[in-house]
Amino acid sequence: MKTRLVRVGNSRGLRLAKPLVEHAGFEDATTRHLPAQVEFLRRSALLVIALVAPSCASDQAAAPLALPSVTLAVVGQAAASLDSTGHFELAVAPQTSFEISEARARQIAEGWVATYASFQRGFLERQRRASIDTKSLRPCGRIFYAQSPFVVSADAAPLSTLRRYAAWWIVTLCGASGEPQVSLAVSSLLSQAQLEAGRLTLQPPHGNEFRSVGIPPGFGDLVIPPEDAVRELYALTGKAVALTPRLWIRADDTVPNLAQWELTLETAAAFEAETGNAETTTFYVSRGQHLDRPEKHQGRYLLSIPRQHEPPETTVRYPELDEAGRIIGWRSVRLARSAPATFVPATILSTPRVP
């Protein structure tokens, strides 16, 4: 199965025309430790990155709007949460006592580089479409906490299952030149991970510890800065953002590295989507998602709205294993939703001219 480049107006984006299976599974550094009967349960479609070149010949897409200063695009709580450097002071504290901290996520990311990155080099270079010196990779820039729309209890199911539905820390790894080369999502449920002499040891049950994505040259971080997301939405709507941005993973995507910012406007803006035309104060902004069909970006990034009439909870099935790792039965756990989990692309109607 091959990935083809798709055009998304005048913007560059991570777009996948069709899901592509890479050795039939999740990119998990630890799957090789799993019994064969369980390993296939960890497997699913992988995101393969295609860098979409800017299109100068497209007649359908307008040139991206000039972005204003972030200070012009915020009011209320959002304005108060800007620090002296113009960055948002985000709520990054873990939501539960069994989650790891930002500092620990950075340490574990460094351990992943020392322990597992070389094994993933070929996979990541195919995504990046360029070489990667895994020995020079280091965490760089800001680390973002991507919240989960699910309410996860540590004793509800095996951690290998729950990690898929829990929060993630998104870490950018740069090469020696300082250019982002790999996006590493670190599960927030890695409190039992051990580091010794810089190398990482993961404790069972294994599975869903990491997601790694190769970043094309010149692309930048996969998770856009929240300030850029705010400026983009303001440029499209002419309406200020009123609440501090929050980063969420999508329940309908297996790649948390492409998390999206939840932005709440001071007043509602009109939009059109496959669910119909309406108004809302809340939009979700990201680089673009792992979609079955390409969608045109209205501006630089993808705007989404929650899909209507979502079920309030999700039932997750997982295997019950004996001491030898053989499947002897199946169990299920119901995960309640605290936020929207699935989304559809949206286009702002009557885009204004803003300073």
Task: Write out key terms for the chains shown.
355 residues, alpha+beta, 2 domains, five-stranded antiparallel sheet, 6 helices, 13 strands, globular, disordered N terminus
What does this entry look like structurally?
Helices cover 13% and strands 26% of the residues. Mean pLDDT is 80; it is low at 1-62 and 290-295. The protein has 355 residues and is an alpha+beta fold. It folds into two domains: 70-85 and 224-348, no CATH class; 92-214, no CATH class. Strands 7, 8, 9, 10 and 13 form a five-stranded antiparallel sheet that branches. The chain has a four-stranded antiparallel sheet with strand order 1-2-3-6. It is globular.
Quick gist of this model?
The chain is an alpha+beta fold.
SSE topology sketch:
Layout: H1 36-39, H2 76-80, H3 102-115, H4 121-128, E1 138-146, H5 159-162, E2 168-174, E3 180-187, E4 194-196, E5 199-201, E6 210-214, H6 226-237, E7 246-248, E8 260-273, E9 276-286, E10 302-306, E11 313-321, E12 327-336, E13 343-348
Antiparallel strand pairs: 1-2, 2-3, 3-6, 4-5, 7-8, 8-9, 8-13, 9-10, 10-13, 11-12
